[in-house]
Specification:
single chain; alpha+beta; 1 helix; 2 strands; 11% strand; globular
Length: 76
């Protein structure tokens, strides 16, 4: 069944040189957000893009990921 991420996952070819946004970690999480998205795979990224486009600049969206963006099932 599902569990915590494995220590040494396989890497996707697009992660040979990771984008700075793929590994971005803020110093501190915001105190308030409107939406929290858990998982930065293709589904989470697609939802975030849609919300950011349709919700306007006042909508606060936070995406959380255990590793790098698009590195889990999407990366395989």
């Amino acid at each position: 069944g599902p569990g915590l991420p494995v220590a040494n996952p396989t890497k996707s070819f697009w992660h040979d040189v990771p984008s700075s946004i793929a590994t971005y970690k803020p110093e501190k999480l915001p105190e308030y957000v409107d939406v929290v998205i858990i998982g930065a795979g293709i589904t989470g990224a697609s939802i975030a893009r849609t919300l950011m486009g349709e919700g306007g600049p006042e909508l606060k969206v936070l995406m959380l990921e255990a590793r790098d963006a698009c590195s889990g099932a999407t990366g395989r």
